[in-house]
Amino acid sequence: MVGFLQRPIVVTADVNLNVVALTAAGLLSRLWRLAYPRAVVFDEVYYGQYLSFYMKRVFFLDGSGPPFGHMLLALGGYLGGFDGNFLWNRIGAEYSSNVPVWSLRLLPALAGALSVPMAYQILWELRFSHCAAMGAALLMLIENALVTQARLMLLESLLIFFNLLAVLSYLKFSNAQHRPFSPGWWLWLTLTGVACSCAVGIKYMGVFTYLLVLAVATVHTWQLVGDRALSHVCVLGHVVARAVALLVIPAATYLLFFYVHLTLLCRSGPHDQIMSSAFQASLEGGLARITQGQPLEVAFGSQVTLKSASGKPVPCWLHSHPSTYPLSYEDGRGSSHQQQVTCYPFKDVNNWWIVKDPGRHQLEVSSPPRPVRHGDVVQLVHGMTSRRLNTHDVAAPLNPHAQEVSCYIDYNISMPAQSLWRLNIVNRESDAEIWKTILSEVRLVHLNTSAVLKLSGAHLPDWGFRQLEVVGEKLSRGSHESTVWTVEEHRYGRSQEQKERELELHSPTHADISRNLSFMARFSELQWRMLTVRSDDSEHKYSSTPLDWVTLDTSIAYWLHPRTSAQIHLLGNVVIWASAGLATALYALLFCWYLLRRRRHVCELPEDSWLRWVLAGALCAGGWAVNYLPFFLMEKTLFLYHYLPALTFQILLLPVVLQHISEHLCRSQLHRSLFGALVVAWYSAACYVFHVLRPLTYGDTSLSPSDLQALRWKESWDILIRKH
Amino acid sequence: MPSAVCGGLAGSELRHRRGRGGPQAARAAVPEEAAEAAAQNPKRPAPGSRPSEAACRWVLLALVTLLAFATRFHRLDQPPHVCWDETHFGKMGSYYINRTFFFDVHPPLGKMLIGLAGYLSGYDGTFMFQKPGDRYEHHNYMGMRGFCAFLGSLLIPFAYLTVLELSKSLPAALLSAALLTFDTGCLTLSQYILLDPILMFFIMAAMLSMVKYNSCADRPFSAPWWFWLSLTGINLAGAIGVKFVGLFIILHVGWNTVSDLWRLFGDLSLSLVTVGKHLTACILCLIVLPLALYTAIYAVHFAVLNHSGPGDGFFSSAFQARLSGNTLHNASVPEYLAFGSVITVKNLRMAIGYLHSHRHLYPEGIGARQQQVTTYLHKDYNNLWIIKKQNTDSDPLDPSFPVEFVQHGDIIRLEHKETSRNLHSHYHEAPLTRKHYQVTGYGINGTGDSNDFWRIEVINRKFGNRIKVLRSRIRFIHLVTGCVLGSSGKALPKWGWEQLEVTCSPYLKETLSSIWNVEDHINPKLPNISLDVLQPSFPEILLESHMVMIRGNNGLKPKDNEFTSKPWHWPINYQGLRFSGVNDTDFRVYLLGNPVVWWLNLLSIALYLLSGSIIAVAVQRGVHLPAEVEGLSQVLLQGGGQLFLGWALHYFPFFLMGRVLYFHHYFPAMLFSSMLTGILWDTLLRLCACGLAASSLASGVHMGGVLSLLLGTAYSFYLFHPLAYGMVGPLAQDPRSPMAGLRWLESWDF
């Protein structure tokens, strides 16, 4: 109890002043004049709009990546008290006074600054010398591209931070193997999983590092499985612990991001249209306001609007209007000349249809309402014109292999009405399921021809007012989205007279019930839409190809001062860039050489230094490869900044190779000293380059045109020079 | 012939039973147990055992081959009209017979063989193959179909022998062969004039020779060793010569060879010289030989196709001059470019095409709304341009004016002949390459503005300042903006008819895409002179045709709103392909795998992964296994591993492909997965049998299991055979149809 009286409590702290100094230097380089320039720089314009959505808690959909990165940026805004009122429309626009620029840029900058001491730690955990570890950190410190990227409200530095954190904690974990299942062991193992999922949560690209860590962990686990000194139970414990920490925890964390995301964004916004009706109804305002209190079950006599589930090319509603199909089309084919049925992307009174029981004449809902079930035969009567939805064996206007869909006009010729449709609820659980507003996805199958009502996606010509074509698909394959419809707006029709009904159709829907979608349903829908939403893949002025990156044959102009020629440019430190590339090649060569020699049992490296060399290569060279090579297969627009995560790993490899050369390839002390001198000279050159490019990195000094011209070391660098 | 070849295989196989890694290796270590195991399983071929064993193997092989041929040739002539892709490949076969040049995205060997088969069987190449459904009438199409069916039938004995070699187990081999024989999909695909049976033949032949080569590993540099090694190389060349998908089997063989060499390299009892010999042999037989053969295929291709045809425009001017009937073949045109000439301008970069314009405007929002200028690969009137002086509106063809040649550095206008608009550029972003300027057609009847002026420059002025048709390499520099006319090589979206984008690049770097030559040249005032066009060398032609093919393959993008087949559909047999017939009165053939076989395959892959990982973990944990189980698990891990690798290599890369995919792309992978199924079930049943003590019961379980699998697949084939042999009558949606009960998935529309 009173042990502290006998023995004092002693806290011994091991402070590595190197790390402290590196952190301080990192902070200084990244945070210095962080709020400058007080203007929108490059992709801040892109992330900024989402930031504002977060601040206003308005739902949005961004296909470029999962929400964690956006949320971190928004956290900066939240801490700075940003209200989200800024029009993010143009690069270079001055920030208004309500935008807390410093705190918006703070998190990426901190992440960038902390990457510097982390590089040191990683090399140290890889069991390389302090000197090599210092080297790696100092290289990170003076890499212009990393500095530029970290000082702005962008995601790459956060991604790099979590990538490095994942690698570092995995190394700490694997170095703690002598004390398995200790708190430290658990801490680092869990942190690995969490850091991996944070990286994936910032950009999908993080998945590559995650896979690399997983691969290394798998190899290590496999070796553990082969360790026959351990009992079966112990091995099982190890395997399960790793599986939980590296598979389950990341998945759970990833879901957590979405949970927070969806909890934060509870209001309807500009991207509602892309989502399903059920999803939209779960947001405040927007569709929820309309659908709030609609009757749930569609009954005979219900007035409904039918939305196509496909949303391609645009979300739209089944529509008809008094115009008829032209007697003959441009290509000479004839039509039925009946009333057009189209899909219309705007809310309109002509989108209303009445579900009618074919056996009765009444168009109002009986009391009690008779719900429509799966398999029932219905007629759909167009609300404003009272004509029935019909299809027949006439070629559709733009897709001649499909049937025309029309609203039937009796011309008293031998063309009978064929207006019976069988209701087919796609997402029912049993056969007798009732047709529900918003929730049910239905297909309408024509009774006579078994054609399915389908949105073809083609735009009709001028006679169809450029609305979308709707056809009867005879040979429907499975349940494609374009044949599926949902009821969006719904009310029970009360009026028998046409005039009254028209009034009724114009009035808004009313009554009261609310509907909730489970989190998993919302998550899976959102994730699926994010992966499939197609961004326009047109080329950007500063886009580049992966081959340009290694040689730094490209640059990105981030910002130009409105009056002077001060500018921010994404440019790498050429010396580091080139030597990192060389080091990677050298590593690969040496590795192959050693591997071949070892295969013939010639081992010039001692076993422990070989293992160290292999692990460093697997993580650093491997990290570079997995973060770089997949870009060759990608078809999206690529930019130089996509290379930065790969570059970080390459920079970590550089001191590894240098130390290896000095330890194993320099045969005498003299060689070693000479080599050391060379390295110092080379590092000074890198510092010099950093200094020369500094104005373009920080953008704080205005340079004369001739200075800028002198900085244009490569023809392909688009340094902006004002013509006066 | 097949039985003779197979005889050779089986004979050589008998002699070297001590293949590495086989169950025999394990058994040799524990001879008593091995003998006991052999006694337990009388069906199992034991080393150098009874001659009846070998005879049994022969009889089964003959039986399997016979059955394969019987199923493949049954009703081969039905339907007597063009089915599905026969319209392409039959047509291309005819091109070979007629010796007209064409362009296709696949390498030529498959179509050459089809053409050869047609030629030998007396088909005269006159049938048009215009569209599916065309009747063959009196044309002799059976030769070509028969050839494909012949190769398709051979797949089955090949599978039999491969599995036999990998597992040393007759029931496994028999099961694999039965799965393939009774698969309606393989059957359908083998019965028509398609590339797939040929491709699958080469893939399986390469696999078989590789496996045979592996089993010769204990006697390196012997005659069979060389034979199988070089045969592997030959079949690899065949596979890649039919379709680029053949690359996957090359990867497979490559992986196998590399791991083999790695093993040899680690064997310290072998000197480096011996390893070097192995390496050289592999390089010779697996790299040099296939390359030589592949090149030879192209040499034959170019030698046979020496007449101008529909594929000319895809190729460079120099290439076209080789083809008789082409305007450039022994062409006689005015030699030097003069003002007033009507010309076509061709980009020097491969597969870009001619400078082209047409009466369509750039859509709203994409630069200025002026007439589109593109490059186009086909010959067309819209490729014609008139070269005019900068400011004179007078007709240069007026005979009263003297002829004036165009010189290096002249300022010109290019007027589009059909629409009378000038080639124009201005400070607007190009539609796709945003760093470049837009190029349009502008002006009315040849009157535009100063943005229509271009300076013509000749590169490497070998022929003086004048511009020589075909030979001079020229650039067009825009006078006002100083940019250079080029093509980015990117296909425009739908509004641009998927032709390639033309831009004006402000970067004056000399790249091929901004260099052009004049191809056609019409000027009545100048005498036509016979031109000796620079004949391209063979490597140049080879390279060029590959560039064109790659570009063509990249161009096969799925269109918006088109329902496309996804790779994940395939192993679950989600949806077939309609080969022939739509309505209930038509003769309908539907390419769909036998669902029993396919779902069994799918299940087997999962089971394989499961059992494989259990065994691997057990081995890694050092669990002591009985010798018999040890041998079986070696078969499963090594033999099964080879097949699993084959399946994965032929399946997963499709997930990365951006081009349009079809169901039949899965069939090579399906072959591997069927063989895997054979080995897996045989091994699993044997393992079950091992667990049972009584030997009679054990063998009963094994034989019973194999037999029921065999009979099950045969019965399912009986049920589903109308898919392949053709159905008439009501569609399967209709309950009256005999197939109604068999429509197990809604997505099958037969």
Provide an overview of this structure:
The complex is a heterodimer of chains A (724) and B (750). Chain A is 45% helix and 12% strand. Chain A contains 21 helices and 14 strands. Chain A has helices at residues 3-6, 17-31, 44-56, 68-79, 101-125, 130-141, 144-150, 156-175, 183-202, 206-225, 232-264, 277-281, 287-291, 498-506, 519-532, 546-550, 574-599, 607-628, 644-665, 669-698, 705-711, and strands at 302-308, 317-324, 339-344, 352-356, 377-382, 389-395, 403-407, 421-425, 442-446, 452-459, 468-473, 485-492, 556-560, 567-570. Chain A is elongated, with a radius of gyration of 33 Å. Chain B contains 19 helices and 16 strands. In chain B, a hairpin with an 8-residue loop joins strand 15 and strand 16. At the A-B interface, strand 10 of A face helix 12 of B. Chain B: Residues 12-50 are annotated as: Disordered. Chain B: It holds the Pfam family PMT_4TMC. Chain B: Keywords: Endoplasmic reticulum, Glycosyltransferase, Membrane, Repeat, Transferase, Transmembrane, Transmembrane helix.
Task: Please describe the topology of this protein.
The complex is a heterodimer of chains A (about 725) and B (about 750).
Chain A: H1 3-6, H2 17-31, H3 44-56, H4 68-79, H5 101-125, H6 130-141, H7 144-150, H8 156-175, H9 183-202, H10 206-225, H11 232-264, H12 277-281, H13 287-291, E1 302-308, E2 317-324, E3 339-344, E4 352-356, E5 377-382, E6 389-395, E7 403-407, E8 421-425, E9 442-446, E10 452-459, E11 468-473, E12 485-492, H14 498-506, H15 519-532, H16 546-550, E13 556-560, E14 567-570, H17 574-599, H18 607-628, H19 644-665, H20 669-698, H21 705-711
Antiparallel strand pairs in A: 1-4, 1-12, 2-3, 3-7, 3-11, 4-5, 5-8, 6-7, 7-11, 8-9, 10-11, 13-14
Helix pairs in contact in A: 2-5, 2-6, 3-4, 4-5, 5-6, 5-7, 5-8, 6-19, 7-20, 8-9, 8-10, 9-10, 9-11, 10-11, 10-18, 17-19, 18-19
Chain B: H1 2-15, H2 23-29, H3 31-40, H4 51-73, H5 86-98, H6 109-120, H7 142-167, H8 170-181, H9 184-190, H10 196-215, H11 223-242, H12 247-266, H13 272-304, H14 317-320, E1 332-333, E2 342-347, E3 354-361, E4 371-376, E5 384-389, E6 411-416, E7 422-429, E8 437-442, E9 454-459, E10 473-478, E11 484-491, E12 500-505, E13 516-522, E14 529-530, H15 538-555, E15 577-580, E16 589-591, H16 595-620, H17 627-651, H18 667-691, H19 695-725
Antiparallel strand pairs in B: 1-14, 2-5, 2-13, 3-4, 4-8, 4-12, 5-6, 6-9, 7-8, 8-12, 9-10, 11-12, 15-16
Helix pairs in contact in B: 1-4, 1-7, 2-3, 2-17, 4-7, 4-8, 5-6, 6-7, 7-8, 7-9, 7-10, 7-18, 8-18, 8-19, 9-19, 10-11, 11-12, 11-13, 12-13, 12-17, 16-17, 16-18, 17-18, 18-19
